[in-house]
């Protein structure tokens, strides 16, 4: 009995072929999307791949070494497939991608040409372009810890252990006023100090930006008003009354870990690590060598 691969190879060797491409995308939130450049829908590996979805892709080329594969997926932004908001809020970042070559007359005949993840995504003029990264891309990532004075963990992850929803570390409020798409003013955060949310996370709970997340650049008091400035503009205009959730921020310093979060036991940095001046200069009486910048 011949395998599907042998049957497919015979079809390819026949000269006249009935081939198309199909893509299956599995997002990290569990949602699955199927696309094909054929003119009718196809069922591939149990996933309905929709036609007329505007998806296209360059030929897959794999290079030696660990370089990112040069394949790209290009498609139209539509409510039936991938929306502008999906791209803006990063819902497809890191999604798993399967790229199939399919005999559309017999969709069970397939060849898996590519498997990897979505990397950088660019959008504009009603379309998107996504970089496809092969499985070998994971081997490019540093493994192990880095010796730094500051903590190398993300606030709230498993090794950090801080509960981001603990009392005093999270707040919800409605936007009182806004200036553009980066600066918002809140009136019910009087119990929080200035810079409490700096480098923290903001999540939009209502309004046109609902579901989107961002990072806080600075927050400060101006009379009874708490002003929060974001690192990046929101995708859509901010409306008065839009609700947000703010999480406390961390500058990854040892003192902050101890005083703000009471979590120094889990601090993952090396605050007493000698600076470069310790090994490059000779000792001078009365002069500390702690790596600090000096005139």
TrEMBL record:
Residue ranges annotated for the Bacteriophage phiJL001 Gp84 C-terminal domain, each copy included: 195-277
InterPro entries: Phage_phiJL001_Gp84, Phage_phiJL001_Gp84_C
A Pfam cross-reference name: Phage_phiJL001_Gp84_N
Protein name: Bacteriophage phiJL001 Gp84 C-terminal domain-containing protein
């Amino acid at each position: 009995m011949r395998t599907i691969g042998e049957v497919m190879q015979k079809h390819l060797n026949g000269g006249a072929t009935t081939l198309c491409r199909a893509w299956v995308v599995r997002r990290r939130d569990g949602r699955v999307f199927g696309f094909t450049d054929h003119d009718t829908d196809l069922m591939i590996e149990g996933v309905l791949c929709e036609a007329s979805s505007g998806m296209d892709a360059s030929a897959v080329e794999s290079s030696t070494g660990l370089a990112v594969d040069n394949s790209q997926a290009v498609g139209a932004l539509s409510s039936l497939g991938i929306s502008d908001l999906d791209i803006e809020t990063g819902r497809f970042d890191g999604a798993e991608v399967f790229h199939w070559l399919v005999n559309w007359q017999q969709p069970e005949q397939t060849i898996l040409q590519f498997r990897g993840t979505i990397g950088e995504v660019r959008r504009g003029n009603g379309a998107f372009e996504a970089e496809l990264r092969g499985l070998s891309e994971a081997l490019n990532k540093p493994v192990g810890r880095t010796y730094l004075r500051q903590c190398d963990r993300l606030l709230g992850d498993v090794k950090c252990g801080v509960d981001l929803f603990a009392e005093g570390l999270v707040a919800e409020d409605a936007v009182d006023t806004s200036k553009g798409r980066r600066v918002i003013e809140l009136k019910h955060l009087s119990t929080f100090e200035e810079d409490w949310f700096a480098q923290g996370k903001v999540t939009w709970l209502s309004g046109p930006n609902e579901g989107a997340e961002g990072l806080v650049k600075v927050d400060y008091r101006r009379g009874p008003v708490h002003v929060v400035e974001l690192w990046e503009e929101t995708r859509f205009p901010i409306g008065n009354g839009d609700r947000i959730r703010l999480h406390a921020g961390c500058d990854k310093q040892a003192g902050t870990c101890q005083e703000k979060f009471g979590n120094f036991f889990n601090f993952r940095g090396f605050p007493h690590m000698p600076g470069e001046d310790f090994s490059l200069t000779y000792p001078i009486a009365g002069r500390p060598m702690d790596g600090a910048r000096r005139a």
